[in-house]
Amino acid sequence: GVGGRFRKKSEPTMGGGRLVVPLAPPQRRHRPSPWTRVSHRSSFLHLVALATLCASTLALCALLGTTSGPTRLGQRVVSARAGVGGSGAAVRAGYLEKLVDAAPSTVKVSPGSKFSVIIEPRVDSGREFLGRFLSENEDWVRNLLQSKGAVLIRGFDVPTAKDFNNVLPMQLGSDTKKGLLFDIIYKTIIASVFTLFRDLGNIDPGRRMDMGAGGRIQVLAPPSDCIQGPHQESLTLATRLSQRYIAFHCETQPQTRGETAIFDTHAAYEDLDDDLRRLLTTHCWNFRDVNGKPTNDLIPCVVAHDDHQKPCIQVYAFGEMGEMAAEVAREVLDRDNLQPDPYLYGVTSFTLRNKETGAEREMTMDERRRLMKALYKSSELCAWRKNDILLLDNVSVAHGRMDGRGPRKINFCGPCVCVCAS
After folding, report:
1. At what angle do helices 365-377 and 274-281 cross, to 10 degrees?
2. Residue pLDDT, tens place only, 129-178
3. Res. 110: pLDDT tops 80
4. Which of 206, 395, 366 is nearest to 275 (CA)?
5. Which are the contacts of 321, defined by CB distance < 8 A and separation ≥ 6?
6. What is the CA radius of gyration of the chain?
7. 58-77 as b/e, with b when 16 or more CB fall inside 10 Å?
8. What is the pLDDT of residue 53?
């Protein structure tokens, strides 16, 4: 392929055992196994895309009047001695009740299946109304999202990706606020990133950009028997590409299953055994890329949420950890058919680095299993309906695609400026 010749690694093992290939293959054809390495020889197209990306990024910074990088997200680490008191939970519960009571009379707010909340229309379900509502009640929506981590907007008329882009009052990349030049440069950056990552075999080829919907909307890959492990978007980068909050939209409802799993990472942290909690609070993830080299940023395994200071697990379960995620999901969710995602999304493996000493160690299979089990026990499945919009806090809530069948079409938007404003 354009990304160079793929060389299959030796058959992977998990804890010394032979990797078991499931009998039932995925329903969708995939590229080669994730246990591959990309040759160091970069193609001409990769070099062109990389040069274009660098030039466009510098031009965008100049256009915005700054050369400083985005705010580093999730870097307030949690002390190993930090505790979570019950009184704090009671205060948050009281605060949430006040938020729900303060809901505008034009919408109905109700609890989801576990930790999310649902906003539905009382009178007007039109997309124009929803756009005005989100803009005029920005602070209330943001506070609700910060308190619960997941807000599902259901029952409004938002049939297309373009409508999804237009109802969210977050104009990053839109010529309505930043101008045509900004729009062109932003779209060039996104196209360059996708060229680099897709050609290197890191991203499912079913995932693509929808440039006609404003330049910031991605169409996610359709479902199969393969699932994504829990992850925060762009976690391997300290900046997370400024994706403090993220949004999903259901344009085509899946025939069977096809949910998006969402994970309450604070609840999972509280459910950990003491030894595993100490391990995570004192270490950072040191991820390794598709060539086995450490990535640039060390990511704390646990951070203090910037709104409520509650400890939240940070996780990126692809590659080796994705294998364990699928194994645990089969057990916790009682779905025997689940297979790990064969795409790397930039990561093959990792080590844990001690924050104080710099010493590195492997995470044992038992530790990985217990971490994934805590996360899946603290999860809920968003069963998509057409026109749904799901807003997530990209620090306190992880997400991952579940298995399914049918022509599901889920749109994704990363930089959620409407709820990032302070």
Report:
1. 100
2. 999 999 899 889 988 998 999 999 999 999 999 999 888 865 333 334 45
3. yes
4. 366
5. 229, 315, 350, 368, 372
6. 21
7. ebbeeeeeeeeeeeebbeeb
8. 55
Tally the C-alpha atoms within 13 A of residue 236's C-alpha that lie toward its C-beta.
Answer: 19
- CB distance 147 to 99 below 8 Å: yes
Distance CA 164, CA 124 (A): 17
- Give the count of beta carbons closer than 10 Å to the beta carbon of residue 165: 24
CB atoms within 10 A of CB 139: 11
Torsion over CA: 208, 213, 214, 218 (sign): negative
Angstrom distance (rounded) from CA 120 to CA 101: 15
Res. 32 pLDDT band, cuts 50 70 90: very low
CA dist., res. 358 & res. 353, Å (int):
6
Residue 339 identity (one-letter amino acid)? Q
> How far is residue 58's CA from residue 178's CA, in Å, rounded to a whole number?
16
Of the candidates 380, 395, 374, the residue with the CA atom closest to the CA atom of residue 274? 374
Q: Which residues of 103-114 are buried (b: 16+ CB within 10 A; e: fewer)?
A: beeebebeebee
Q: Where are the beta strands (DSSP E) in 112-171?
A: 117-121, 150-153
Contact between residue 126 and residue 134 where contact means Cβ atoms under 8 Å apart: no
Q: Tell me which H or E stretch contains 191.
A: helix 180-199
Does 211 have pLDDT greater than 70?
no
Spatial contact of 236 and 346, defined as CB atoms under 8 Å apart: yes
**Cα–Cα distance measured from residue 56 to residue 104, given in angstroms and rounded to the nearest whole number:** 42
Q: How far apart are CA 231 and CA 371, in angstroms?
A: 13
pLDDT of residue 3 exceeding 60, the answer is: no
Which pair of structure tokens corresponds to residue 117?
């909340």
CA gap 413, 164 in Å, rounded:
9
